[in-house]
Amino acid sequence: MPPAPVDESLPAAHRHAAARTTGFGTTVFDTLDSVRALPPGPRSVFDVCHVGVVLRAAVFVHAAVALGVAFVARDTVDALGRIAGGAGVALPAVLMWLLAACALKGVLGRAPLAAQWAAAVALGAGCAFVAAALVGPLAPQLLGPQPLLAPTLAGAGLAAVVFHWLRLRERAMLPADTSARLAELQSRIRPHFLFNTLNTALALVRVDPARAEGVLEDLAELFRVALTDTGTSVTLAEEVALAQRYLAIEQIRFGERLSVSWDLDPATDAARVPPLLLQPLVENAVRHGVEPDAGGGTIRVRTRFQAGRAVISIDNSVGAAPSEPGRGIALKNVRDRLMLMHDVAMQFDAQRVGALFKVRIVVPL
């Protein structure tokens, strides 16, 4: 069969990948080439729509205000009054700047660097001017003899510093993002699992063809996801379904030695998580908790909606028989990808508590 025509409007690297495809979507091998060959995606320095960026920017601006006050305050009472006045202008100004940058990130991200600098400084000056104009009449004694000029100049200067920090942050995140992506590609479903599953299916073909067919269907779905570039995020419901397929295969292999419990809250299904987040965690639970123990073990997966967040818990028993110590690659990879996606809005904890190994993940909804 002749190969399908390739869209000539695509970039050269994309045409090269498309020409090699087998019709099953971009595979892990194509993606590895893409990471090396394609330029970075459209990422804007002004992408400040994250809790971590907002907190850091607000803390920095308030610290700068407090430091400036320290040079002119006559005593502690005067310093506190000036800090209160400065904070009254700084907080709304920095929030307005962040909201404007977030709303305009697409437009500003495509502008030349000089225009980005000008926009950042102008937005800082404008937001500070508006905040001072609103706060000044309420407490004129707190802003001094220049209630508009000084805040406007300070807003421009602080905006320039914040923008420079955002550019440094962007440069630092690019190699981290690439490294985490490569680690995720390289830590996909391990080959030994494929061999074990095929052996299980072969053993079932004669005695229970229907179960053998189910095993192979689950295996095909697992590798369809593992070998396909699924993008930067998927829903938690999709991740749970994938983990269920994985454990269904392991359940056939281990039989009564493996006990699996699912306690799922549908309210968390829409949470966005990096692809292949849960599968390596449940695979770790099988490999280090169930497999080395002659008596088998238990795995419990639980999701809960809590205060606007999705809480995911994976607990597995740890037997007396020691397993081969791992290097923590799967746990580190999961933590790194969650941090890149959700920053300080996520939580990740993994620790042994008595006879259980517990992993707890919290992501925003």
Task: Provide a compact summary of the structure.
This protein has 365 residues and is α+β, with helices and mostly antiparallel strands. The chain has 12 helices and 7 strands.
Give a structural overview.
This protein is α+β, with helices and mostly antiparallel strands. The chain has 12 helices and 7 strands. The strands form 2 sheets. It has a 5-stranded mixed beta sheet with strand order 2-4-5-7-6. The chain has a two-stranded antiparallel ribbon with strand order 1-3. β6 and β7 (about 355-365) form a beta hairpin. α10 (about 235-255) runs parallel beside α11 (about 280-290). The longest helix is centred in the middle third of the chain and has 38 residues, at about 150-185.
Descriptive keywords:
12 helices, five-stranded mixed β-sheet, single chain, two-stranded antiparallel sheet, 365 residues, 7 strands, 59% helix, alpha+beta
